[in-house]
Amino acid sequence: MISRRNFLAGAAAVPFLSYASLLPAVAAGRQDILVVAQTLDNMTSLDPHESFEAVGSEICNNMYQRLVHPSLTNPEEIEGGVASSWEADEEGKVFTFKMNPDAKFASGAPVTAEDAVFSLQRAIKMNKGAAFIIGQFGFTPENVEQWITVVDDSTIKLSLETPTSLSFLLYCLSASIGSIVEKKVVMENANGDDMGNGWLQKNSAGSGEWTLVSWKPSESVVMNYNPHGLYKGNVKRIMLRHVADPSSQLLMLQKGDVDIARNLTTEQLRVVVDDENYNMVRQSVSGIMLMSLNQSNEKLTNPKLWEAIKWAVDYDGIQQNIVPLQYKVHQTIVPEGFPGAITDKPFKRDLEKAKALMAEAGLADGFTIKMDHYSAQPSPDIAQAIQANLADIGIKVELLAAENRQVLTKMRAREHEIALTSWGSDYFDPNTNASVFCINEDNSDNAMSKPFAWRSHYQNEEFMKKAIAARDEKDPATRIKLYGDLQREFMQNSPFIVMMQKFETAACRKDVTGMRLGVLSDSHSYAGIAKA
């Protein structure tokens, strides 16, 4: 495995030279332009009410504000965005928000209550992948105009049929799906009844620090600063360039062709981590890496098989030998650092136990299966390690590498057998992960809600009941215990093999300051960026 990676590093010069020629000759050298090397292949849309991938949501976060957002330094605290204040009635069924009079869109127009109501209604009516985050409060395309309303020019009201806690509602509204768009601009660019979706996929109409200039899939994203926004630094344009190979990212950083490299693997990080010419920004984030076994495949439906795979994987070996600076071993669906998260790691490589479980499952002779994974490192190296681990218990894995968005598209179509992917949390509450893994109320192909479990045809009534009970529990201590119990049961008896939790690192040249990485993938921010 090491020799293969060294080979890739040596071979990277050819694609780098051809790619570097596409960069503006002086872009990275200019104080007012920031150039970032990053993998950009998992985006399918930059409409904030449709985007549901980590990088796309991050970019949307830099172009749009929400009513509220989590504090970057302490994500358990909620701060105002385009809302300056909020309150709940005694029953926990009516919530009012006062708009911030100073918030302005990139057009210069003020952010109004009408814009906020339109945006939340639009998210529900479009009913794209992330709509369930706020739809779980009972909002539907049929009732949303009745339950999310304008009180006056500076006030909006959300009414619920079922009481909920203010903090839980705020966490959900802080997700990217809660982004506020400018109604006038969006509807002027609507095509038929698409509510501007076609246009907003590659344009922006927000009040964040940055505005979209262009997006070329798997090539680049260019943003300009919003002159009416909060950004006051000296960078006027950000150019995100898709560079899939981390060795190329490192070389471009060293040559000064880019200011920041976002996807260096352990091999490259070792080169720059102690070099005074670079500022390293590092954050433990909510992304978890896992294998998903599609329950539509008869070979993968036996719980004894699920357990056998969990005992066959060499978690520590993969972490220590492939990604020691990028991931830590983590085996539960709620990321460490979240309220209610547990740090139990019951599984380790035990071939004797794994083989015995294969025999109990009636699969002692093994079988052949396909596993999809991202083509960008470190996924190929991890996939090869898993392939070798599972071969030891008779499972012959055929690896299928593809761009991130291609793997995601295949999973969303429920067409994978095994998929090695990542999942990032949407808001700072354990329900964000418990719900998508456990609450799959409609397992049919045409289901209205399609959580992560749905993608693998997985439905478990007991886990669903327990996740809902934990979500709705009012006593904080009891709620934490319920989530702990749920995680322990789920990790022992589900077709998901959670392996690791991610560290995000941005390697910046020493003249770059203010890069911010948050716990949530959509909270990485260029709001404070500057170049000396």
TrEMBL record:
It comes from the Bacteria. Residues 77-442 form the Solute-binding protein family domain. It is found in: Periplasm. CDD domains: PBP2_NikA_DppA_OppA_like_7 (cd08512). SUPFAM superfamilies: Periplasmic binding protein-like II. InterPro entries: Peptide/Ni-bd, SBP_5, SBP_5_dom, TAT_signal. Residues 1-27 form the signal peptide. This is ABC transporter substrate-binding protein. It comes from Paenochrobactrum glaciei. The lineage of its organism: Bacteria, Pseudomonadati, Pseudomonadota, Alphaproteobacteria, Hyphomicrobiales.
